[in-house]
Design a protein that fits this description.
single chain; mainly alpha; 2 domains; 7 helices; globular
Length: about 130
């Protein structure tokens, strides 16, 4: 990030009387998955299932449309079990899931750090993630 960008951000914070700690909290909330928030966890689980399925499709050389991948995922028993636990509306499952995957506002969650740790996917690299998402 250029120094000029930081100066612009600093000027905006000063002009609008926003404390740096408040700005940092807002930024963290917008880019991190909160493990204590049920909706965030449900989002992370769906993203993990999607990336896992896309990786399998990529390995087989059958990487198709995102919507088809979503349809395959929501038809699996593993997804249905999780959806029932999350009290997801079955009629809106495809629409909600597909919107999550294709929404530009969610693209910052598709980072390798979000697919490591407990929800890790073996063989996933930043380049491969960019290819299959």
């Amino acid at each position: 990030m250029k120094a000029i960008d930081l100066e612009t951000i600093g000027k905006y914070l000063k002009d609008n009387d926003i404390k740096p700690s408040e700005a940092l909290d807002i930024i963290k909330k917008s880019v991190e998955i909160n493990p204590n928030n049920q909706r965030s966890v449900w989002k992370a689980m769906r993203m993990r299932l999607y990336i896992k399925e896309r990786l399998e499709e990529h390995k087989k050389g059958l990487l198709g449309k995102k919507a088809e991948t979503v349809r395959r995922i929501i038809s699996k028993p593993e997804y249905r079990t999780m959806a029932d636990a999350a009290k997801e509306n079955p009629q809106r499952a495809f629409k909600n899931f597909n919107h999550l995957i294709t929404d530009p506002r969610q693209k910052h969650f598709f980072k390798i750090k979000n697919f490591n740790g407990i929800l890790s996917i073996k063989g996933l690299t930043e380049e491969l993630l960019a290819t299959i998402k």
